[in-house]
């Protein structure tokens, strides 16, 4: 009986460890323009191996600060040989472990692919996905109540693997309002939260080699023992939606909301 109560007590203590986090970085997107001490623009039509069909620019019509928010604004327009333009930025700072929060309002529309994610700053264990990837939020704009969280690792493509929440239905249209997307990442696990509700845990307290191809790792927890930086973007189409065909400019006229707004990003350690 004494042990039983001790366990409940210990659980409460662990749960309140949130109070021990200290803010180490923030971007509230309150200035006149994007803070280029914090961010790089990704430019061009890159497709990233996933056959996305957008062209990323740094024009304010695609990415800007407005009313204290970062706005990524997808345009239906001919640009280079592309039908759509959008925005994507990469963080210049990086951290190992911590609590990472993004308060965001998602877009909504056929084959819009917004993402709030993190990539390794130095690729110490080799090319994708040997050095890891942490997808805090990835959504198909056709279903704005559903998103998924994933970590990628295990080896260089095609020897990579992943651990994923799978699509989760939060029964709430996440394009109607701001919601808090967060992870807590420590040497043993990465916990994923929506509006402070914990819905998924990825265990990293293990050898993370996929078992295929060369083993890039020597210890448990690799590659998630290195600094990672933020990435924010809205892609369009691509293999995330299957083999195609992908959304046309004509279909895109019916997109209900072609912007993603980020109110703030916070990093605690
Ligand atoms: C936007 O990109 C163009 C092309 O690379 C570059 O010349 C320009 O300086 C960039 N502007 C900003 C604000 O980064
Ligand atoms: C752009 O849209 C047109 C009309 O739907 C389509 O025929 C064309 O293949 C598209 N181009 C690209 C690069 O996706």
TrEMBL record:
<dbReference type="InterPro" id="IPR013320">
    <property type="entry name" value="ConA-like_dom_sf"/>
</dbReference>
<comment type="similarity">
    <text>Belongs to the glycosyl hydrolase 16 family.</text>
</comment>
<dbReference type="GO" id="GO:0005975">
    <property type="term" value="P:carbohydrate metabolic process"/>
</dbReference>
<feature type="domain" description="GH16">
    <location>
        <begin position="19"/>
        <end position="269"/>
    </location>
</feature>
<keyword id="KW-0732">Signal</keyword>
<dbReference type="InterPro" id="IPR000757">
    <property type="entry name" value="Beta-glucanase-like"/>
</dbReference>
<feature type="signal peptide">
    <location>
        <begin position="1"/>
        <end position="19"/>
    </location>
</feature>
<dbReference type="GO" id="GO:0004553">
    <property type="term" value="F:hydrolase activity, hydrolyzing O-glycosyl compounds"/>
</dbReference>
<protein>
    <recommendedName>
        <fullName>GH16 domain-containing protein</fullName>
    </recommendedName>
</protein>
<dbReference type="Pfam" id="PF00722">
    <property type="entry name" value="Glyco_hydro_16"/>
</dbReference>
<dbReference type="InterPro" id="IPR050546">
    <property type="entry name" value="Glycosyl_Hydrlase_16"/>
</dbReference>
């Amino acid at each position: 009986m004494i042990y039983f109560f001790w366990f409940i007590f210990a659980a409460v203590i662990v749960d309140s460890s949130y109070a021990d986090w200290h803010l180490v970085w923030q971007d509230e997107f309150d200035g006149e323009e994007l803070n280029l001490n914090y961010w790089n623009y990704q430019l061009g039509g890159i497709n990233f191996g996933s056959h996305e069909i957008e062209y990323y620019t740094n024009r304010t019509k695609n990415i800007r600060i407005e009313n204290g928010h970062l706005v990524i604004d997808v345009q239906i327009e001919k640009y280079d040989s592309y039908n759509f333009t959008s925005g994507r930025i990469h963080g210049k700072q990086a951290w190992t472990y911590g609590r990472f929060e993004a308060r965001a309002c998602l877009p909504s529309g056929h084959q819009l692919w917004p993402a709030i994610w993190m990539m390794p700053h130095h690729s110490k264990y080799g090319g994708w996905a040997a050095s890891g990837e942490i997808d805090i939020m990835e959504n198909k704009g056709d279903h704005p109540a559903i998103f998924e969280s994933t970590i990628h690792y295990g080896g260089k493509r095609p020897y990579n693997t992943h651990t994923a929440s799978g699509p989760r239905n939060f029964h709430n249209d996440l394009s109607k309002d701001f919601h808090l997307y967060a992870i807590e990442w420590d040497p043993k696990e990465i916990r994923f939260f929506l509006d402070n509700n914990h819905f998924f845990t990825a265990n990293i307290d293990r050898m993370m080699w996929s078992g295929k191809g060369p083993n890039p790792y020597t210890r448990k927890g690799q590659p998630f023992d290195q600094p990672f930086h933020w990435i924010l973007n809205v892609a369009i189409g691509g293999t995330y939606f299957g083999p195609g065909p992908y959304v046309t400019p004509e279909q895109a006229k019916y997109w209900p909301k072609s912007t993603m707004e980020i109110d703030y990003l916070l990093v605690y350690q």
